Amino acid sequence: MAAVAARTRAAVRGIGRTPPPPGPFRPGFWRSPIRGPWLTSVFGLVLLIGIPLLFITGLLSYASYNPGLSPLNDETPDKGVLGFYLFSWPTHPYWLYRLLQGVHVTLGVVLVPVVLAKLWSVIPKLFEWPPVRSAAHALERLSLLMLVGGVVFEFVTGILNVQLYYVFPGSFYRLHFYGAWVFIAAFVVHVCLRLGRMGRALRSRGLRAELRTGLAGTVPEPPDPDGLVAAAPAPPTMSRRGAVGMVGAGSLLLLVVTAGQSVGGRLRGTALLAPHNRDPLSGPNGFQVNKTAAAVGVTPALVGPDWRLEVHGSGAPLVFTREQLLSMPQHTAALPIACVEGWSTDDQHWSGLRLADLAALGGLPDAGSVLVESIQPPGPFTRVMLRGNQIRDPRALLALRVNGSALSLDHGYPARVIVPANPGVNNTKWVHRLTFRA
């Protein structure tokens, strides 16, 4: 081991004695007069607040699928210790998932200009020469590469998924979940290594004074040990005030054109970048649909007069027509639909049978779970498991009608599940079998 370490040190010294290659490795290549520790730290401070919030809301979003309940709910198998925090997802308040996923997606989109600005501000660090000077420097470099790669991967995959253009191989849930843990590990290491320097850089200049400084008064920061300040700065074409303002304006614009898909109301019309920004139709069923019946292979023939609902429990299976279900006592609930892409509907008025009543009919009034199966062709989330607390919530329904009318085919006719605080993909449409388990 000692010989290997000696050879490594010799190799590093050898690289350090060679001149840097042409291009971005040369100190004079980066010439922006506003790049430096202070501006980098301003963007870093925003991310220091935003990234942990983004990570926590993402973890809670994953927990909302109740992945520990059944492999059917888990798109990230073999998560091991990374699932240490999972818990039974509550049904109160009913808007919990809508809030969490709305914040997660909206914040992720809003932080894009800050992330790009931060990457621009530290890009000379990616081309340091020599690339490795010591073991500590190697750790810092590795954390930086993992950080940059992780943030690019997470933001790109997340935004593509939001826009329904996900093109990466494999499950989005799995890749995004594991990518998030790799990224946050690198983020924590980087913060531990840089927090002290960031604090000193922020104290070196007053924010108010810097925001009052225009282009004429913009001068480079003093040389720094990290090499962010240009060795031969060019004349300024933008002040630091302009850079901060441009990034802030970009984030504000993205907030305006994205948040409405989660907030709803009049703001829904401003969500120009959201694929579900406006109601697609008018009338009782005129609210957002993630996937249409045609898109998943559900035809009118599958839900015609021969459709039946099967209820399995402790005894013989029970079979009901839709007319028989409608003849039973009906209950109502005002609940939204909220999806992983960050969009949600306003509260819709659903009516149908309580899942608790159906569990009692099946002979298991204290059922611990229910397997919900859709008539659509097999695929992800065509079968899901719901917990006992979700069954017993009086607002958890097998919905037959919405807003006073029968469900449309795209909204799950002849019957669908609707549960408070449940991810939209777990509110199964076109239900044909419920299997209650003790």
TrEMBL record:
Xref: InterPro entries: OxRdtase_Mopterin-bd_dom, OxRdtase_Mopterin-bd_sf
Pfam family, one: Oxidored_molyb
This protein's record includes keyword DNA-binding: no
Domain of life: Bacteria
CDD domains named in the record: SO_family_Moco
Domain Oxidoreductase molybdopterin-binding: 304-437
Keyword annotations: Membrane, Transmembrane, Transmembrane helix
Keyword Transmembrane helix attached: yes
Secretion signal, residue range per the UniProt entry: none
Segments passing through the bilayer: 38-63, 95-121, 142-166, 178-196
Protein name: Molybdopterin-dependent oxidoreductase
